[in-house]
Amino acid sequence: MKAQNCPNLTTLFFDQAKALGDRPFLWVKQNGRFVPMTWRQAADQVMALAKGLKAQGLQDGDRVVLISENRPEWLISDLAIMAAGGITVPAYITNTVEDHRHIVDNSQAVGMIISTSRLAENALQAAHLNDGLRFAISIEDLKLQQSLNVDVMGWQAALDAGRDLDIDIVQGAARLKRTDTACIIYTSGTGGVPKGVMLSHGSILHNLVGATNVLSSLGLSDEVFLSFLPLSHSYEHTAGQFFPMSIGAQIYYAQGADKLLSNMAECKPTIMMAVPRLYEMMHARIMRGVEKEGGKKEALFRKTVELGSRAFQDPKSLSFGEQVKNFALEKLVRTKVRKKFGGRLKAFVSGGAPLNPDIGLFFTALGIRILQGYGQTESGPVVCVNVPEKIKMNAVGPIFPDTEVKIAADGEILIKGELVMNGYWGDEKATAQTIIDGWLHTGDIGIFDEDDHLQITDRKKDIIVNSGGDNIAPQRIEGMLTLEPQISQAMVYGDQRAHLVALLVPDADWLGEWATRNNKPGDLASLYLDDDLHTALAKTVSHVNAHLSNIEKVRKFIVATEPFGIDNAQLTPTLKVRRHKIKDVYGDLLTALYG
Question: What's the CA gap between 104 and 91, in Å, rounded?
Answer without folding.
Answer: 10
